[in-house]
Write a structure and sequence with these properties.
Blueprint: H1 4-7, E1 65-71, E2 77-82, E3 88-92, E4 96-101, E5 104-105, E6 111-112, E7 126-131, H2 135-138, E8 140-146, E9 152-160, E10 163-164, E11 170-175, E12 187-189, E13 195-199, E14 221-225, E15 245-248, E16 253-258, E17 265-269, E18 275-281, E19 289-290, E20 296-297, E21 300-301, E22 316-319, E23 327-332, E24 344-348, E25 353-360, E26 363-371, E27 376-381, E28 387-391, E29 395-401
Parallel strand pairs: 15-19
Antiparallel strand pairs: 1-29, 2-3, 3-4, 4-5, 4-6, 7-8, 8-9, 9-10, 9-11, 12-13, 13-14, 14-15, 16-17, 17-18, 18-22, 20-21, 23-24, 24-25, 25-26, 27-28, 28-29
Bound molecules: calcium ion (3 copies).
């Protein structure tokens, strides 16, 4: 996120439309340009950045690092997002957002929408948060929650100073949920300024309605919408199917994130009974990826035989025989410890294990790094690229050197 000056030279990344995907990963990144950014013409030939630290090629020795407690007085935290004022926003599943600033959690909620959040079942509640790229100017932030009838709601709220009015809600999307589980929940603004949302296949087991492979439903998808071009939102003109769908064949993409440097999108897709997986949509993709569910679970046949051509297997997977049960997608480290630079960290909710992924060419190195006793609901990344773990038992931890 320190490298955003490079991006300010790219007018194609303006928030109000992206007619052509970024030409190559080396020219992409985040955050998107903002309204108060200086606008300069794109040089005829974009010069590769020279001041970027290289990605590490080897995993650091995890014994030299610790997960340091930040705060432990939360109720079921599920998301952590930074703002531009150095504050962390901590999301509690029951329907609250608390600020963390000056070294402590602010007890008075920043937002309380418990009155409309339905968290009757474990995978329901206030599940995801994303701040508008121009949050400093417009105060807009977006949440994903399960509400009336258990349906998925993606809504905008408006912050004003140290709180947000619950009555400022503008609903963008309401998606009927046939079962209480597999509601997805992740929300992310991409480097193109569009809002990406992960929706699960609707629930039950084995995708009984075939939602993952159906292009007639938003369930089992990654959505991509333009929150700036229309009210309540517009469909970007270059979406692959002419609607909100960006990618499909997903079971329950609970957490995903963009690499803040490259713009690659990493997705943790929760498996059925055997395989947990990490998928990737590279920067510059034109969308339309099919990640295989429910023909495939991880890199293995699941149901329905061969399935269509072109299904994309994960870049990493682990089996329930190794002790895991539910993958929690994380972030690519881009903080102050160069030995971690470029490593994608992810974990498992049930075992507390944390793995790292390093890209080397077209291949990926995957390594188990930490055994923790956390129930990992989510990872978080602050504005400086540092990484956090959220524990369902109420705590947040930061990755630090011992
Ligand atoms: Ca559901
Ligand atoms: Ca099925
Ligand atoms: Ca898959």
């Amino acid at each position: 996120m320190k490298r955003f000056l490079i991006l300010l030279l790219l007018p194609i990344l303006a928030c109000n439309g992206l007619s052509t995907p970024p030409p190559s990963p080396s020219e992409t990144g985040s955050p998107a340009s903002t309204d108060n950014s200086p606008t300069q013409p794109l040089p005829p030939t974009a010069t590769p950045p020279t001041d970027l630290p290289p990605n590490t090629t080897n995993f650091p020795n995890p014994d030299a690092y610790a997960w340091r407690l930040l705060t432990d007085n939360l109720e079921r935290p599920v998301d952590l997002q930074p703002d531009n004022a150095g504050r962390l926003w901590l999301v509690e599943k029951a329907g609250h957002i608390h600020l963390f600033q000056n070294g402590q959690k602010v007890d008075e909620p920043f937002l309380d929408i418990e009155d409309r959040v339905n968290d009757a079942e474990n995978e329901m509640g206030l599940l995801g948060l994303a701040l508008h790229p121009d949050f400093a100017q417009n105060g807009y932030f977006y949440v994903n929650y399960t509400g009336a009838r258990g349906d998925t709601f993606i809504s905008r709220f408006t912050a004003s100073g140290d709180s947000a009015d619950p009555n400022s809600e503008v609903n963008l999307l309401r998606v009927e949920q046939p079962y209480p589980n597999h509601n997805g929940g992740t929300l992310n603004f991409g480097p193109d300024g569009y809002l990406y949302a992960g929706l699960g296949d609707g629930g039950s087991g084995g995708d009984p309605e075939g939602n993952g492979q159906s292009l007639d439903t938003l369930l089992g998808k990654i959505l991509r919408i333009d929150v700036d071009s229309a009210v309540p939102y517009g469909v970007p003109p270059d979406n692959p199917f002419g609607d909100e769908i960006w990618a499909y064949g997903l079971r329950n993409p609970w957490r995903m994130s963009f690499d803040s440097l490259t713009g690659d999108l990493y997705i943790g897709d929760v498996g059925q009974g055997d395989w947990e997986e990490i998928d990737i949509i590279p920067a510059g993709s034109r969308g339309g990826e099919n990640f295989g569910w429910d023909h495939r679970e991880g890199a293995h046949d699941f149901e329905g035989g061969d399935g269509p051509a072109g299904m994309i297997d994960p870049i990493a997977e682990y089996s329930h025989n190794e002790g895991g049960c539910s993958v929690t997608g994380g972030y690519v480290y881009r903080g102050s410890m160069p030995e971690w630079n470029g490593i994608y960290l992810y974990g498992d909710y049930c075992t507390g294990q944390v793995w790292g992924l390093i890209r080397s060419g077209e291949a990926w190195q995957n390594q188990l790094l930490f055994g923790t006793d956390f129930r990992i609901t989510s990872f978080g990344q602050d504005a400086n690229g540092e990484l956090y773990i959220l524990d369902d038992n109420g705590a947040v931890y930061q990755l630090v050197r011992k």
